[in-house]
């Protein structure tokens, strides 16, 4: 039941239904990885990952000095659908990733989720893959991609000559809505979604901006520490 309902695993793998002890479970995940056992920690709310902050910073800083052969992935739900209590206001996935330069990926639609899961879910090393509660309540977007970054850092869904739309965090539906409204008045837009939370080679997106000479940046994070700010600095 719960977050792993209907989940199927390979032979010799296990699904363990645990109590809510986030600090312990993050520590167990790192411990398993150090012993060459891969694991995935599904958790219902990103906010509670704060309870594992010691492991995310200090334990991971020890692990990163080595080259782990096993995988540890944390998959939290980002509670970003509105106010749902005192412990549901931390929706900025990037803040967690910036704590200790943790690789993070956001899933915003069917195609980016398939590519991110296929390449990163059980690859060696540690990462966090976040899912938006707000988007879970909406119809799953099924988009065609034009291209994407080598490590699924970004995805391009539309190509136009008039304006470049770049979406961060879980803002892709807003960007797609804007794209459709611009298309209705004969303004052709390029549409990108940035799916990671650490700096990468922005040049493919910047090249598109140089072509259109117009930029719309959409970021729905609630944070003062935004990758979109870094992108904007590089773009201008």
Automatic annotation (TrEMBL):
<protein>
    <recommendedName>
        <fullName>Transketolase C-terminal domain-containing protein</fullName>
    </recommendedName>
</protein>
<dbReference type="InterPro" id="IPR029061">
    <property type="entry name" value="THDP-binding"/>
</dbReference>
<dbReference type="InterPro" id="IPR009014">
    <property type="entry name" value="Transketo_C/PFOR_II"/>
</dbReference>
């Amino acid at each position: 039941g719960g977050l792993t309902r209907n989940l199927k695993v390979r032979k010799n793998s296990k699904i363990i239904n645990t109590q809510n002890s986030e600090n312990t479970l993050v520590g167990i995940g790192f411990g398993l990885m150090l012993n060459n056992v891969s694991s995935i920690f599904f958790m219902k709310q990103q906010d509670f990952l704060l309870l594992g902050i010691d492991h995310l910073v200090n334990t991971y800083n020890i692990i990163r000095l080595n080259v782990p052969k096993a995988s540890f992935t944390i998959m939290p739900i980002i509670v970003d659908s509105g106010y749902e209590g005192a412990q549901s206001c931390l929706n900025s996935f990037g803040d967690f990733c910036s704590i200790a330069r943790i690789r993070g990926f956001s899933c915003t639609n069917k195609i980016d989720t398939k590519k991110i899961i296929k390449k990163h879910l059980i690859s060696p090393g540690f990462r966090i893959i976040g899912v938006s509660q707000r988007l879970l309540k909406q119809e799953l977007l099924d988009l065609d991609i034009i291209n994407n970054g080598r490590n699924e850092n970004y995805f391009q869904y539309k190509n136009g000559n008039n304006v470049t739309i770049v979406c961060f965090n879980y803002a892709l539906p807003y960007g797609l809505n804007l794209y459709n409204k611009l298309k209705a008045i004969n303004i052709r837009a390029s549409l990108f979604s940035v799916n990671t939370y650490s700096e990468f080679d922005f040049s493919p997106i910047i090249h598109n901006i140089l072509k259109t000479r117009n930029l719309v940046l959409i970021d729905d994070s609630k944070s003062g520490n935004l990758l979109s700010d870094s992108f904007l600095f590089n773009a201008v």
